Amino acid sequence: MRLSDYTRLLALAAIWGASFLFMRITVPEFGAINSAFLRVFFGFVGLAVILLALRCPIRFNGKFRACFTLGMINSGVPFVMYCIAAQWLPAGYSAVLNATTPLMGALIGFTFFAEKLTLSKWAAVILGAVGIAIITTFGEAHSMQELVFGGLACLVATSCYAVSGFLTRQWINNQGGLDPKIVAFGSQIGATTLLLPLFIFTSTTDTSIHWAQGEVWASIIALGVICTACAYIVFFRLISDIGPLRSMTVTFLIPPFAILWGYVVLDEAISQGFIFGSLIVAVAVWLIVRPAKQAEEVKALQS
Q: Where is the EamA domain (predicted)?
């Protein structure tokens, strides 16, 4: 990987770390479904403005359906899941569970995409499960039920991210490629379309929502424009440059930023169980993403 790749990973981690903070601000006021929809909607609008400003021709080259579907998998469902989790879990907790994306990538790649799992990666999967169990058992939440359901919502989201990473490689990169800005734009069309009916239903039936809240709208716009539109351009470019599994390692860098933003802005606390479980997850993710030995790489290429 080049220095520019590491720089983009770090910047992406800082931005996506802030997204968990923004969700903690918006979800209690606007609700999970509304927050998720507004995020993808402003992501769609932000990408449209970027494409117009750059005078980028919007050509999908026969891949619109792929981009549309990827958006539902990579944005629509995960954003709803994280907004649901934000009702109960502190920002740092969701971010650490988000860091299991490479673990999910290894499992899903092995199960559905003919990816090989070494002994160390199997150990990583087991360690990751132990770490998640500790986090969801000794975490800071109102009840054990909230921890479990919040944790499960995050794991559904990471599974979607893992699947979309491999599908992006199959449907986009292995089929001649596509401008990452166009992939991101098409994906937000898919996510917005998926969530629009749910948004119409919840926004028209829930009369308790107070929409005139400037701070909440600022967080929503930041979620859509910065954490979605700009971030996904970088993310899809990374998948094209360094592959899906390495791109997923950005989730390993997100938790420190999420914990920092949550502590500074919302004064969120963390427990000893959370720290211990997070360290186990960190070791598990490192076992997944560490550089392969040269001999292993040669053997993989020959097989």
A: 9-136, 149-289
Please state the rounded mean pLDDT for residues 202-218. Answer: 92
Give φ, ψ of 65 to 5 degrees: -60, -40
* Closest alpha carbon to 277 in 82, 136, 158, 112: 136
Place of tokens 């800082």: 14
Name the nearest CA neighbour of 141 among 157, 153, 159. 153
What does the pLDDT read at residue 23? 94
Q: Output phi, psi for 252, to 5 deg.
A: -70, -25
What's the total number of domains in the chain? 1
Phi-psi map region of 290: left, alpha, beta (phi>0 left; psi -120 to 50 alpha): beta
Say if residues 104 and 161 touch (Cβ distance below 8 Å). yes
d(CA 28, CA 300): 48
pLDDT of residue 142: 57
Contact 130, 76 (CB under 8 A): no
